[in-house]
Design brief:
11 helices; about 80% helix; about 0% strand
Length: about 230
């Protein structure tokens, strides 16, 4: 869990730095920075998505995952949590709402390829190198996000702790399943497509409910093994 704890700390430090910078940054510069972050996010997503080799697994996982996530309203739950924080902090109306920062930060820090593979490496072999590398990147990302979206990004550290911590713990339990590198590649691919969607949201091009797609990651192993049973 060392890598997860370091990641949480870097998100908190980066967010604090961003909040300090926010007061002195003009709105037009903040918008330009958000566009840059969005484009970089899209690039990271495309890079990870290219690791997948079975398009059918990707399609089925995303479709069924999104249906499941929409049915249980994951996006609504995250926004509700962000709205609760916003109400408690009395910051509604500020440039960059608490809810927006919380949801965007949570997704950006938790569904990338480095999150998935890094957490699995930590759980399977105790290797925290990838999570520590990710922590350095998240330090920069959280700083930039907090400078534009506000304090909500800081609270995304809680989501990082819960999500990555759960992956690390589950990795040890599902060791035999998660040593299949082809399966890991398909999980990474699916998560990276969500990263692309998040990048499009950050740039303002779309308003995709990315959080509702999260269950797709759970469907990947199912469809991966079903695809392996087909005589093709």
């Amino acid at each position: 869990m060392l890598g997860v704890i370091i990641n949480v700390i870097t998100v908190l430090i980066g967010s604090l730095m961003g909040l300090l910078l926010k007061k002195g940054i003009p709105e037009r510069i903040s918008k330009a920075a958000m566009t840059a972050i969005g484009l970089c996010t899209i690039y990271i997503g495309i890079d990870g998505a290219l690791q997948g080799e079975n398009t059918i697994v990707l399609i089925l996982s995303l479709v069924f995952g999104t249906i499941t996530g929409t049915a249980i309203n994951i996006d609504g739950a995250l926004n509700k949590a962000g709205g609760f924080l916003e109400k408690k902090l009395g910051s509604k109306g500020e440039r960059g709402s608490v809810a927006s920062g919380f949801v965007t930060g949570s997704l950006l820090f938790c569904i990338g390829a480095m999150t998935i593979v890094g957490s699995l490496n930590a759980g399977l072999s105790g290797d925290n190198e990838l999570l520590i590398t990710k922590s350095i990147l998240d330090l920069i990302s959280s700083c930039m996000l907090a400078s534009t979206l506000g304090i909500g990004v800081m609270f995304a550290a809680v989501f990082v702790l819960v999500y990555q911590g759960a992956l690390v713990l589950l990795a040890g339990t599902l060791q035999s399943l998660l040593t299949d590198t082809a399966l890991i590649a398909e999980i990474t691919c699916t998560g990276s497509v969500m990263i692309i969607a998040l990048g499009l949201n950050i740039t303002g091009i779309t308003k995709i409910k990315v959080a509702d797609m999260l269950p797709a990651l759970l469907f990947v192993p199912l469809f991966y093994f079903l695809a392996g049973l087909l005589p093709i």
